[in-house]
Amino acid sequence: MKVDVTLRLIVCLFLHQTLAESQSNSIVEDKDVLVLTKSNFHRALKQHEQLLVHFYAPLSGQSLGSILEFREAAGALKEADSDVKLGGVDVKKEKELAESLNITTLPSIRLYLSGDKNNPVYCPVLKSSASILTWLKRRAGPSADIISNVTQLENFLRRDELVVLALFKDLEEGAVKVFYETAADVADLPFGVTRHHEVFSKFEISRDSVLLIRKSKLDQQFEMESSTVKTDLVHFIRLYEMELVTEYNGVTASKILNSVILNHLLLFISKTEGGFEEIYNAYETTAERFRGKVLFVLIDVSELRNGRMMEYFHVRSEEAPQVRMVNLSNNLQYQLPSDQFDTHTLMEFCLNYLDGKVKPKMQSEPVPANWDTQPVKELVGMNFEKVAFNHNNNVIVLFYAPWNSECRALFPLWEELADHFSQTQDVVVAKIDITANDIHLHLGEKYPSIKLFPALYSERVIPYSGKRKLKPIVTFMKIEIEKAKTDKAKEEQRRKKYLEDQKAAQKEEL
Predict the structure, then answer these.
(1) What is the pLDDT of residues 201-228, one digit of tens each?
(2) Backbone φ and ψ of 463, nearest 5°
(3) What is the pTM of this model?
(4) How far is residue 413's CA from residue 468's CA, in Å, rounded to a whole number?
């Protein structure tokens, strides 16, 4: 009897241990996406032959969209019983893991195969769940539809508003391989390839070429050479994938923001107003002249869904029509200095801009009447530099966007900070709506951003990146203010010596 009891105990302990080990090997999922960390990443690589990993920063605007689309793709793959598993790494939490994997840009997507962490396949940052699934599908099988007759061609051309069609005499060797590689990566467009002589004749083409066909009509042609590389072909497709004038909407927004062209000319206009057709024709004519250098975008101010875009650029519907040039590399804006929208005026503006002859548009809200009587000083573009770079004051500034919940959550803290320093004469606590006021200062990060401007003659800016709580901010300020006192004493000595040298030089001249 004792032997039987002992045997049962051993079996129970074994089962309990087995269950515990099984649970310890499982990885938590969030919406069908594995939550990957430093402690479980290698285990995930071993468990899944194909692991597509999304590296993201959760509070980043760019990452947010890709997080949602990634989850949707994960659900679709799970439902289809796919061998591919999707995982996510929150880089803000897993800095050490991201560093060990050499993650330098966010968001970033990589496909790890057969447990090899050192040689991932780099995936483009795809903007929709459909394109993620297409990319995976094209990697597993043919990356482009093989078109063998004219009937298939007609069906392919009707598949989408814009399709990529390649005409090659050899579908196995040569430059066609570059086309297949490109088709695998550019997953948001349909790709087809043919060697059928009737298709060559239909488009009156004799050489290997890649065509962009819009609404079943030839739009652009790219001749393929033996020296053509994938980046050349991708650049061609991205350069011409949008029409001469692209209307901003939910479908085109991501393509506009991710265009290879960084100079964007924006026409704010109501499509229902009387002179729309005449202005649009001039705008489209100008667009043809600058294609490849400037992306021409139309924003319909009568479309309610464009309200956020108009708010961002501070354009009211009654101010339309209006034209702005925006450079996406530095986000500077340039205003067309005219109420004429003819071809000559638009062309001259674009030429002057490209030649560096146009000055950026600086905007500012009016200075509030009681801006300096409140505990937290409300700065605008017109008084920012005067207050922030006052050598008698240590000024800490919160740069915020009023519609951002993370920014608004800091307002009570800023009132608390102002109250803490209310009896300190040389400390100013301030904030500025960075979406409504231009300043000559590169923030270096997204809002909310906190920066200290110490009481110095030289214009010094010290970013704060610690915890957003009263005590650590106060500690940070006190340390930097003490440093500033020492540095200012040295500045004053140098200034004094300079003045003495100037006086001595003047005496010698006399």
Answers:
(1) 999 999 999 999 999 999 999 999 999 9
(2) -75, 145
(3) 0.57
(4) 8
Q: Is residue 364, in this structure, part of any structural domain at all?
A: no
Rounded Cα distance between 102 and 122, Å, is: 12
Residue 112 lies in a domain: yes
Both 286 and 203 in one domain: the answer is no
Its domain, for residue 279, covers 245-354
Q: How does DSSP assign 380-396, residue by residue?
A: -TTTHHHHHT-TT-EEE
> Which residues contact residue 31 at a Cβ distance below 8 angstroms, ignoring those fewer than 6 apart?
71, 74, 75
The 10 Å Cβ neighbour count of residue 408 is 13
Pairing of strands 217-223, 209-214: antiparallel
CA 162, CA 237: separation in Å to the nearest integer? 11
Q: Work out the angle between the directed axes of helices 276-289 and 343-354 (0-180°, nearest 10).
A: 40
- Tell the residue number behind the tokens 């298709």, with chain if given: 199
Token readout for 393 is: 């004051």
- CATH code, 183: 3.40.30.10
Alpha helix stretches (DSSP H) within 297-437: 307-313, 343-354, 384-388, 405-408, 411-420
